[in-house]
Amino acid sequence: QERSARLRRWYELMLENKEELARIITAENGKPLKEAQGEIMYSASFLEWFAEEARRIYGDVIPASAKDRRVLVLKQPVGVAAIITPWNFPSAMITRKVGAALAAGCTVVVKPAEDTPLSALALGELANQAGIPAGVYNVVPCSRQQTAAVGEVLCTDPLVSKISFTGSTATGKILLKHAAGTVKRVSMELGGHAPFIVFDSANVDRAVAGALASKYRNSGQTCVCTNRFLVQKGIHDEFVEKFAKAIEKELHVGNGFDAKTTQGPLINEKAVEKVEKHIKDAVSQGASVVTGGKRHSLGKNFFEPTLLSNVTTKMLCTQEETFGPLAPVIRFETEAEAVAIANAANVGLAGYFYSQDPAQIWRVAEQLEVGMVGVNEGIISSVECPFGGVKESGLGREGSKYGIDEYLEIKYVCLGGL
């Protein structure tokens, strides 16, 4: 009950300070202020959710096979949890993990991304104000040069019982190797390569709206944003035409603090270079730039929202996660072909498709090799729903009623001699 009350107060303080918290995010990673405000509300919702779940950690009484025994199952906190978070959602990726950990009774050491330490520290200040005891929520900011060393210490120190990481698959594999030495519990939310399939039966206007939201949120820098568009031949041309018009009309590149901005800068020069590399490779193999295609006139890390057509599965942009404002469109003919292309990746975080055929909806939803499926929806993240992937996209689930289990050990107690 005490944990629940403190988490609830932390949630209330986030709402009271939502404007300041949002401005910190925009200042740190360039996210448009409206999106940053949305992230703070999403972020706070995890503290509210897990404040409620803290009082619902139920054990079991199991019927025993012998008359003189009673069999119990207890759930207990795993212990110290190391939380390693990314820059693209510097507040929400902390509360989604920390809310569950504290609700379960664990203490945490948060290592925020080197690009966005201030959001983590701001949450720490509010945790103090909420009465979270000293030593329960700890933040260890560090430089880019020290990141690998700090990560290794958190993963190898025997005092740490649990690792929760959100970031790239490559980094996740390194952390898994470190954690294996002491057989730590791990949760990994790693890279994605989300397909977005539009079938001939789809409502094209709704598909375009969903595509715009899924692809260009945070300038394409989200782990669940679409990376590959697969559009059936019957509606391909109509979709591409309407998608291009929507991009040109509704997206505005600019300073995140400007009210009309929908697309802020990319996080750094390296991110811009990757988008350029993917576009150059695709065009060299026959892809066409429908709109965008180059750095924005604002300069530095700003890039034009880009749409490519005549894309094939041999191009880099359909083999790697771009993590930028690039939408490549592949034309396909049959449902089986689309599912095969979608499932060809070695990762499987999110997947999306648009269809109005009920039988097709069931078939494709079950066949897609991803942890989360959006059917006729481009934005699917929600505090009530389990977030996580399959294959090399990770281990475990966050949020929802399942999220707290990641921070609990199950203990079996056999009470004999009765």
From TrEMBL:
<comment type="similarity">
    <text>Belongs to the aldehyde dehydrogenase family.</text>
</comment>
<keyword id="KW-0520">NAD</keyword>
<dbReference type="InterPro" id="IPR016160">
    <property type="entry name" value="Ald_DH_CS_CYS"/>
</dbReference>
<keyword id="KW-1015">Disulfide bond</keyword>
<dbReference type="GO" id="GO:0005739">
    <property type="term" value="C:mitochondrion"/>
</dbReference>
<comment type="pathway">
    <text>Amino-acid degradation; 4-aminobutanoate degradation.</text>
</comment>
<dbReference type="InterPro" id="IPR010102">
    <property type="entry name" value="Succ_semiAld_DH"/>
</dbReference>
<dbReference type="InterPro" id="IPR050740">
    <property type="entry name" value="Aldehyde_DH_Superfamily"/>
</dbReference>
<dbReference type="InterPro" id="IPR016161">
    <property type="entry name" value="Ald_DH/histidinol_DH"/>
</dbReference>
<dbReference type="InterPro" id="IPR016162">
    <property type="entry name" value="Ald_DH_N"/>
</dbReference>
<feature type="domain" description="Aldehyde dehydrogenase">
    <location>
        <begin position="1"/>
        <end position="413"/>
    </location>
</feature>
<keyword id="KW-0809">Transit peptide</keyword>
<comment type="function">
    <text>Catalyzes one step in the degradation of the inhibitory neurotransmitter gamma-aminobutyric acid (GABA).</text>
</comment>
<protein>
    <recommendedName>
        <fullName>Succinate-semialdehyde dehydrogenase</fullName>
        <ecNumber>1.2.1.24</ecNumber>
    </recommendedName>
</protein>
<dbReference type="InterPro" id="IPR015590">
    <property type="entry name" value="Aldehyde_DH_dom"/>
</dbReference>
<keyword id="KW-0597">Phosphoprotein</keyword>
<dbReference type="GO" id="GO:0004777">
    <property type="term" value="F:succinate-semialdehyde dehydrogenase (NAD+) activity"/>
</dbReference>
<dbReference type="InterPro" id="IPR016163">
    <property type="entry name" value="Ald_DH_C"/>
</dbReference>
<keyword id="KW-0496">Mitochondrion</keyword>
<keyword id="KW-0560">Oxidoreductase</keyword>
<comment type="subunit">
    <text>Homotetramer.</text>
</comment>
<dbReference type="Pfam" id="PF00171">
    <property type="entry name" value="Aldedh"/>
</dbReference>
<dbReference type="GO" id="GO:0009450">
    <property type="term" value="P:gamma-aminobutyric acid catabolic process"/>
</dbReference>
